[in-house]
Amino acid sequence: MSRAAVLCGLGAWVPPTVVDNDQLARDLDTSDEWIRTRTGIARRRIAGPGLATSDLAAEAGRRALESARRTAASTGAPGPQVDLVVLATSTPDQPCPATAPQVAHRLGLGTVAAFDVAAVCTGFIYALATAASMIVAGCARSALVIGADTFSTILDPADRTTRAIFGDGAGAVVLRAGEDTEPGALLAFDLHSDGAGHELITVPGGGARERSLRTDNEAAWNRYFTMQGRAVFTEAVVHMSDSVRTVLDRTGWGSAQLDRLVAHQANLRILRAVGGQLDLDERQVVTNLDEVGNTVAASIPLALADAAADGNLRPGHRVALTGFGGGVTWGSAALTWPRLTLAADAPEPEGTRLTEEAAHFTEEGAHFTEEGAHFTERTDRTDDKENLS
Fold first, then answer.
1. What is the CA radius of gyration of the chain?
2. What pLDDT was estimated at residue 251?
3. Prior bond to 95 cis, omega within 30?
4. Is 222 an active-site residue?
5. Chain centroid, CA 317 distance in Å
């Protein structure tokens, strides 16, 4: 046996404001059919005035901590004493300081170590690996790992592509020190980046680079999020598929032994293609993006929370997590799913639950292998706006 970080709590939260495709169609040159066909998304949650990333992160964190306490109580064990908070976000409350210390303070965690990780849609995987490594090294006993983003605050209001894809949300897990033979132990990680692709997914303004080139006081310097959809689609499918294979090799699992893949919820086409590349069927691939959209660093823990609440993740399931995001960055993790008790006082907000439509896609979408085998051909014959990421 070896020391390992063990997942022992889970929580998520999305803001109450729902924006469905018909609402977007009233403002933009788009339609419900156009959005569903290209992304699989029906609606998304938006943080309204006065709600920031720290608000979402704190609520998801509170629920994860309560889940950890209840899970421990069910076995007669003491609740974890969190001494580390890692927040994955690309939309911090302000550029400086980090948002994680605010969240830790609001949760009453005292003077624990707390910092942000910025890896865009791979952020949760990076944060999870960082926290797990600190636990294994003995630098922390228990960690709260949160993925939270409010991308609605950095989208061009006139851009139908990005507004159709992104939603706001937060998800969190609690890790504790344990053994690698325990259910919930994080068994393998795989992390990568390639700075040659840093312009594929970016917010050009707001940092030192643009400030060094500007002499005026204009506040809105290229502040909107941009991406190159076709290139992102291809790279996301290739890198996530390869990364999952790596963690499966490290754990000794094959694709046929994998019970659930929880990938970054970019869009339905990417999920289908990754599933196809890994020879997975629809039952093995978790999705909830039809109800919440692409929530960036929050997407993986949100999908975990939905699947756990619906019984789509069960104790003993072999689970792989994978993500791809700006930087570009990508990575994966593997664990055996533990028995968790979710926070009783924090039911899943309406609209975040895994729906039958999302779980089964469509008859066409069920053929993952065929979809994955032809993803490169599709990117060659479609434009950027169809390969939404």
1. 19
2. 97
3. no
4. no
5. 19
Does 264 participate in catalysis according to the annotation? yes
Whether residue 294 lies in the annotated active site: yes
Q: What is the CATH number of domain 187-381?
A: 3.40.47.10
Cis peptide before 328 (omega within 30 of 0): yes
**Whole-structure pTM value:** 0.88
Q: What is the pLDDT of residue 339?
A: 96
Helix axes 229-251, 268-277, angle to 10 degrees: 40
* pLDDT at residue 295 tops 70: yes
**Residue extents of the structural domains in the chain:** 3-179, 187-381
Catalytic residue among 267, 288, 294, 387: 294
Same topology, domains 3-179 and 187-381? Answer is yes
Rounded percentage of the chain residues whose pLDDT exceeds 90: 74
Catalytic residue among 121, 239, 267, 387: 121
Q: What are the DSSP calls for 327-371, one per residue?
A: TTEEEEEEEEPPP----TT-PPPTT-SPPHHHHH--TTTT-HHHH
Distance, CA of 264 to CA of 286 (rounded, Å) = 10
CATH class of 3-179: alpha beta
